[in-house]
Amino acid sequence: MSSTSPRLRISEIFHSLQGESTRVGLPTVFVRLTGCPLRCVWCDTEYAFTGGEMRDLDAILAEVARHGTRYVCVTGGEPLAQKPCLVLLRALCDVGYSVSLETSGALDVSSVDPRVAKIMDLKAPGSGEVDKNLWANLTFIGSSDEIKIVIADEADYLWAREQLQEHQIPQRCTVLLSPVQGKLDPQDLAAWVLRDHLPVRMQLQMHRIIWGERTGV
């Protein structure tokens, strides 16, 4: 192990099926980094806010390789809250993985390796963190990236519809709308999308449908 290997605080590394995004269903290794500056009211990974274990980049790469999977998702928490995350993303790409990054959209994505597929949130008002959206990030979103908006109610949906039009987001990339599980009936969100002919992909969290509320999936 290199003595200069960057170190990151890791909440967990696990092998599962991707439950969201256009990569849904693909066997994937998830590298979940600890820490997040946001506190979305519906967050389902609060356990990743604190704790975790400091691990060398070399050890992280070795653990990822052990699972023998092509796809890797770096997530959190908010992974970009740790500066060495950029080094990790680049290293994963360098050794040939197909890499995605799940990020809140509140931190600058301009330095993310262009080989990485950015799955970036826009925080709707129902999240409690709408003021944290860094709109300049849209400049760095391309056709291989995706925008995700989690919808808690019809007010969130109407907000999302307005942002998609104002910023011409569907012309940039795939847009994903997700209902807050247990708060918004998916049938309602589906009805609004169909009513408005919205150019988006609605998604449910497949991993939670399969395994329920648990870590490591």
TrEMBL record:
<dbReference type="GO" id="GO:0016829">
    <property type="term" value="F:lyase activity"/>
</dbReference>
<keyword id="KW-0408">Iron</keyword>
<comment type="function">
    <text>Catalyzes the complex heterocyclic radical-mediated conversion of 6-carboxy-5,6,7,8-tetrahydropterin (CPH4) to 7-carboxy-7-deazaguanine (CDG), a step common to the biosynthetic pathways of all 7-deazapurine-containing compounds.</text>
</comment>
<feature type="binding site">
    <location>
        <position position="32"/>
    </location>
    <ligand>
        <name>substrate</name>
    </ligand>
</feature>
<dbReference type="Pfam" id="PF04055">
    <property type="entry name" value="Radical_SAM"/>
</dbReference>
<protein>
    <recommendedName>
        <fullName>7-carboxy-7-deazaguanine synthase</fullName>
        <ecNumber>4.3.99.3</ecNumber>
    </recommendedName>
</protein>
<keyword id="KW-0479">Metal-binding</keyword>
<feature type="domain" description="Radical SAM core">
    <location>
        <begin position="23"/>
        <end position="213"/>
    </location>
</feature>
<dbReference type="InterPro" id="IPR058240">
    <property type="entry name" value="rSAM_sf"/>
</dbReference>
<feature type="binding site">
    <location>
        <begin position="17"/>
        <end position="19"/>
    </location>
    <ligand>
        <name>substrate</name>
    </ligand>
</feature>
<dbReference type="InterPro" id="IPR013785">
    <property type="entry name" value="Aldolase_TIM"/>
</dbReference>
<comment type="pathway">
    <text>Purine metabolism; 7-cyano-7-deazaguanine biosynthesis.</text>
</comment>
<dbReference type="InterPro" id="IPR024924">
    <property type="entry name" value="7-CO-7-deazaguanine_synth-like"/>
</dbReference>
<feature type="binding site">
    <location>
        <position position="75"/>
    </location>
    <ligand>
        <name>substrate</name>
    </ligand>
</feature>
<dbReference type="InterPro" id="IPR007197">
    <property type="entry name" value="rSAM"/>
</dbReference>
<feature type="binding site">
    <location>
        <position position="36"/>
    </location>
    <ligand>
        <name>[4Fe-4S] cluster</name>
    </ligand>
</feature>
<keyword id="KW-0456">Lyase</keyword>
<keyword id="KW-0460">Magnesium</keyword>
<feature type="binding site">
    <location>
        <position position="43"/>
    </location>
    <ligand>
        <name>[4Fe-4S] cluster</name>
    </ligand>
</feature>
<keyword id="KW-0949">S-adenosyl-L-methionine</keyword>
<keyword id="KW-0411">Iron-sulfur</keyword>
<feature type="binding site">
    <location>
        <position position="40"/>
    </location>
    <ligand>
        <name>[4Fe-4S] cluster</name>
    </ligand>
</feature>
<keyword id="KW-0004">4Fe-4S</keyword>
<feature type="binding site">
    <location>
        <begin position="42"/>
        <end position="44"/>
    </location>
    <ligand>
        <name>S-adenosyl-L-methionine</name>
    </ligand>
</feature>
<feature type="binding site">
    <location>
        <position position="45"/>
    </location>
    <ligand>
        <name>Mg(2+)</name>
    </ligand>
</feature>
<dbReference type="InterPro" id="IPR027621">
    <property type="entry name" value="rSAM_QueE_gams"/>
</dbReference>
<comment type="subunit">
    <text>Homodimer.</text>
</comment>
<comment type="similarity">
    <text>Belongs to the radical SAM superfamily. 7-carboxy-7-deazaguanine synthase family.</text>
</comment>
<feature type="binding site">
    <location>
        <position position="77"/>
    </location>
    <ligand>
        <name>S-adenosyl-L-methionine</name>
    </ligand>
</feature>
<keyword id="KW-0671">Queuosine biosynthesis</keyword>
